[in-house]
Amino acid sequence: MEQLEYRRLIKVLEQVAGARKGELYPVLAEAVAVHLGWIDAFVAENPAYLALGSDGEEQYLTMFRPDFVEEYVERWRLNNPFASRDGIVCLTRRGVATLGQLRLRATGRERDFADTFLRRNGIDDMLKIVVRSPATGAVSTLGVPFDGDRRAIEPSDLLMAATLGPLLSPYFEANLVPASVRDLTSGELDVVELVVLGLGHEHIARRLNVSESTVEKRLTCILEKTGCGSLTELTAQWKRRPLR
Question: Can you say whether the dihedral through the CA atoms of 75, 78, 79, 82 is positive or negative?
């Protein structure tokens, strides 16, 4: 690795080291975007294909649209090349893999993930990095999407990824961004509790005697305050919040 790349790596680690508890993800996402050019990087905590046998739930810390995350969870989570046998072997042994590498031996369903789902959302390739918490053993992945029209994955990206993964490990905990309920209003808390029960917007509005637009506005505020990227993530984080 050249001296300039080391400097970029150090700048990322300096920002991560200065992150306050519960704010690691947004700081990390900004740091890799500014210093490495990795835009829209996201974290998957406890991915099922790498954390087999774990009782924890898969979490997503991302700035992607909620509908993108929800479709991924419902249709593609275990049907993408990273969850294939080759993907698991590559991520486990090397700690890093790219969609381009794995696509060569992908099944039809896995190719659909790349050719249909990702490309529909402007993603042509993806870099995936494994990060393990030394304190808890929890497994996370840092995913970096690439738009081929703007930039392709370079050998320097792979080298940086392989170096960065182990260096990030000390900063990762089982819960990177705990849902904060302190800033939620009583009305927002009412909405969260009904969302967790699986009620839709219409039913929530009827139960609380408010309009659907009010429910949607409260949900927008809730997602912003808790840092969740989707209702799926909100539900999972709410279920594991500390009990008082």
Answer: positive
Q: How far apart are CA 144 and CA 74, in angstroms?
A: 21
In this prediction, residue 244 carries a pLDDT of 36
Across the range 203-229, mean pLDDT stands at 87
Output the six-digit token pair for 87: 């993907």
pLDDT exceeds 50 at position 209 = yes
CA distance 239 to 147: 35
Distance CA 186, CA 32 (A): 36
Whether residue 45 contacts residue 61, with contact meaning beta carbons closer than 8 Å, is answered with yes
Q: Contact, 32 vs 41, CB < 8 A?
A: yes
Residue 197 — φ and ψ, nearest 5°? -75, -10
Buried b (16+ CB within 10 A) or exposed e, 16-47: beebeeeebbebbbebbeebbebbbbbbbbbb
Structure tokens at 33: 């975007």
* pLDDT tens-digit series, residues 9-58: 999 999 999 887 667 888 999 999 999 999 999 998 888 888 765 555 67
